[in-house]
Design a protein that fits this description.
CATH class of the largest domain: Mainly Beta
Oligomer: single chain
Helix content: 10-25%
Number of domains: 2
Largest sheet: 6 strands, antiparallel
Number of strands: 16
Shape: elongated
Number of helices: 5
CATH superfamily of the largest domain: Probable inorganic polyphosphate/atp-NAD kinase, domain 2
CATH architecture of the largest domain: Sandwich
Radius of gyration: 20 Å
Low-confidence stretches: none
Order of helices and strands: EHEEHEHEEEEEEHEEEEEEH
Length: 269
């Protein structure tokens, strides 16, 4: 698809601060020769997402994981994906026009959810989690590249991307992983370790080329809830879920080489 070198998509949530920021941004882009649009244009050269991390995730999912790079302006709470502040719009435009930025790659996770009759496909930005419906304990066989790792019992498992390592994974006690490392992480949720059940208590880092397979015990096939970046999916008679690093990627502009470490410090400490 041809890219229009002047079209810029502005993707904003609906709160007052975001709408106000979108209006200011649009005027400033026009005055610098760009053609901003609030209606998503697949021929645009850049996506500017205004809001918090939730708005960033929704923008990617709703627009089918586009190749067009993103940059985020934070009007939310945490804003880990959203590097810029509304007061930095002028600086952003100046540096963008001068090509004074880096382009970071965000790795994604794919899930192939197979039932007795059909397979379904999901792609996650932060994580895909497998849990029990109504907080039921689940019993899952976990395999890596067809090698049996454990029979897990507990609240569920999170399979997170490097970017997602600071999200649900981090809250569940998983490790923080630098975004450029090609890997997936398996993090247990309230694992049971007793004389009856033995589950690993800590997260596991898995190479990006590996396949993580999860098989629920037959009597729990209809007790499984799959969460994709917080969105719930239910399937009847699940037999196996295969998780891999996706061939899809998301590209994000970065204007500060130290922004990741600064983000860690300012957001979490």
């Amino acid at each position: 698809m041809m890219v229009d070198s002047k079209i810029i998509n502005i993707i904003s949530n609906r709160n007052y601060e975001s709408r106000k920021t979108a209006e200011i941004l649009s005027h400033k882009l026009v005055s610098n020769g760009y053609k901003p649009t609030l209606k998503y244009d697949p021929k645009a050269e850049l996506n500017i997402c205004i809001g918090g991390d939730g708005a960033f995730l929704r923008a990617i999912h709703r627009n089918a994981f586009p190749d067009i790079p993103f940059v985020g302006i934070n009007t939310g709470h945490l804003g880990f994906f959203q590097e810029l502040k509304p007061k930095e719009i002028d600086t952003f435009i100046r540096r963008y026009m001068a090509n004074d930025y880096n382009t970071d790659t965000l790795f994604l996770v794919d899930a192939k959810v197979c039932t007795r009759t059909k397979c379904f496909y999901l792609t996650g930005i932060n994580e895909i989690a497998i849990k029990g419906i109504k907080s039921k304990v689940v019993h899952l066989d976990v395999l890596i590249d067809n090698n049996h790792l454990e029979k897990y019992s507990g609240d569920g498992l999170i399979i997170s991307t490097p970017a997602g390592s600071t999200a649900y994974n981090f809250s569940a006690g998983g490790s923080i992983v630098y975004p450029s490392i090609a890997m997936l992480q398996i993090t247990p949720l309230a694992p049971i370790s007793s004389s009856a059940y033995r589950s690993l208590l800590n997260s596991i880092i898995v190479p990006g080329e590996s396949v993580i397979s999860i098989k629920p015990e037959y009597r729990y096939e209809n007790s499984i809830l799959v969460l994709n970046d917080g969105m719930e999916f239910r399937y009847d008679d699940i037999t196996q879920i295969d998780l891999t690093m996706s061939d899809k990627k998301i590209y994000k502009l970065s204007f500060n080489k130290e922004s990741y470490w600064n983000n860690l410090k300012t957001k979490f400490l």
